[in-house]
Specification:
Blueprint: H1 6-11, E1 39-47, E2 56-61, E3 66-70, E4 80-83, E5 94-96, E6 105-107, E7 127-132, E8 137-140, E9 146-149, E10 154-157, H2 173-182, E11 214-215, E12 227-228
Parallel strand pairs: 11-12
Antiparallel strand pairs: 1-2, 1-4, 2-3, 5-10, 6-7, 6-10, 7-8, 8-9
């Protein structure tokens, strides 16, 4: 009798494959006070959070409250940033998309006004304001896809810091394990044909699938692997 696949055990939501929340240091969201007001702060500290590929920066505002944002490339301790309506276009500042000129690099973009920032947050990434329309702003994402967002969505100015992190070779499998472990990623991922028959439908000693890899959308859990509801497989005829 077979057993659940590893991805099914992870999806169950138990603590076996869940990263303890105390390992992460901060949840990066925009301040709700800057939705209708302009606030000014200073960068006082950089934070290395295992839950983010990019370094974070701690901001201390004029009223001595603090928040944490994603650090842009080139910012340093002591720099001033502004948030909200009427904020100046400086590195790391948070503005509405309607205030940001075309061609400006931005990151940590809200997909809906007030959600705190959802798009373009990985190290080294940045999006570009493509154009301003009557009721929307077109943003070009790092994937080259253009999306239309509300002019009231906020974003930070600049590019996310830490872009050269992946340029350094890993060299050893053990180092890659700890990198993935810090952010709760499964690694290594073994091929199904290399698994035991009880662990995967393609498992066994034959070193090949042994059956078609096209699977029905209605296949039961444990058998739903391979090309799920594929329109076609194989080489395309010319």
């Amino acid at each position: 009798m077979g057993k659940k696949l590893k991805q099914q055990r992870r999806g169950k939501g138990s603590n076996v494959y869940r990263k303890p929340p105390h390992h992460f240091k901060a949840d990066v969201v925009f301040s709700k006070r800057s939705i209708n007001n302009k606030i000014t702060g200073e960068v006082v500290e950089f934070i290395d959070d295992p839950g983010h590929t990019a370094p974070l920066m701690k901001i201390r505002y004029d009223d001595y409250t603090e928040s944490i944002l994603i650090a842009p490339e080139g910012i340093k301790i002591g720099d001033k940033i502004e948030e909200g309506i009427g904020a100046s276009i400086t590195l790391g500042s948070v503005l509405n998309l309607s205030q940001i000129p075309d061609g400006m690099p931005i990151y940590n973009i809200e997909s809906h006004p007030g959600d705190g920032g959802k798009l373009t947050r990985a190290a080294g990434n940045f999006a570009t304001v493509a154009s301003h329309n009557q009721n929307s702003v077109t943003v070009s994402l790092p994937s080259k896809k253009n999306i239309d967002l509300s002019p009231d969505c906020r974003a930070e100015i600049g590019a996310v810091a830490g872009g050269g992190a992946k340029a350094k070779p890993i060299m050893k499998a053990g180092k890659n394990f700890y990198i993935k472990h810090a952010v709760n990623r499964t690694w290594p991922t073994n091929r199904g044909v290399k698994s035991n028959p009880v662990d995967h439908p393609f498992g066994g000693k034959q070193h090949h699938k042994g059956a078609s890899s096209m699977t029905s959308r209605n296949a039961p859990p444990g058998a739903k692997v391979g090309h799920i509801a594929a329109r076609r497989v194989g080489r395309r005829k010319r």
